[in-house]
Structure formats: structure tokens, C-alpha cells
């Protein structure tokens, strides 16, 4: 029997990635206080936040599987989450300009019987950005709901010189690994159900 996937997130990018690989899902918005997680270790932070998000959602039926995730950008031992305002976005992008940073995404998958948590890491190198490029970009709405103040899947792609690792991890969900892990929970892409 195929289980029903519940995404514990209202992130449009995570929803888009699950749709892209034809995994049916419903979503339930979680209501958590992220300030409860105070570690400055990015790996621990995304693990703990993904667990906090996922555990805040009740499993209403035994055939439900909850998935939750959290993404942060790190540079020089500093964690860059979503910018609070234009000044915050300007500082983040100026710091990332011309250098390599890392993106960590923690994912938790749980059912009534089991739970797994894993973290994916991707290295991203930015071109040297001009002040004008950064100011133009922060004048758009794009940076403000994204860790590190940029979206690799849209205009922010023009900043990226190279990546080492999973591109989709930078978007917020390492979808290839997620699909493989979901098989263990009996959650499959729609096309796989036809075989």
C-alpha cells in the first residue's frame, strides 16, 4: 500500500520539487518558534529545525508520512538565514560575493513506525558582484524568503559561478536523496505506481 506524504512546510520551492518528480502530497503549515534552536553549528541547526518542524505536525492516519526540511547558508562560520530587510540582504550578498559558501539542508521523514533525519551539503561559488548588481537584486522581492538572500532557481542564478554538490539542495530540498529515502516509507512517484 502506498502511503500519503504530508509536507510540513508552505515553501513554494519544496512543493515545486515534489511536483517535479511526481510525488503526490498534501501540505500542512507548521507553527513553530525557530528561536528555540540556538546552536551555531549549521549541521546541527538544520537537523534540529527540520525535526522541530516535522514533529509539530500530527500524524492523523497510520498511512501518513511527514516530511520537513530546513535550509541555511553558511560563510566563514556564520549562518545566513532569510534576510530581515534590505540592509541584511545587502550585507549577506556582499559577503558571499567572489567567494565560496555552503548550503545545508536538513530533512526529517517520519511515520508512525520510524523516523530518519539527514543533512545534505552543497558548496556554491559566487562571481565577484558589483554594488549595482546587488542593489538591483535586493530591490526585487526575490531575496527575502530565501536563506542567504538569493534564489539559485531564478534571478540569483546569475551570481553563481559553480556548484559542487546537489543543485536542488540549494533550492531547499535534495530531491534525489529524498525520493530514495521515501521508498523506505512506501511513498513513490506517481509514474512508479504504474509499473
From TrEMBL:
Its main location: cytoplasm. The active site is at 70 (proton acceptor). Keywords: Cytoplasm, Hydrolase, Nucleotide metabolism. It is found in: Cytoplasm. Its cofactor is a divalent metal cation. GO terms for molecular function: dTTP diphosphatase activity; UTP diphosphatase activity. This is dTTP/UTP pyrophosphatase.
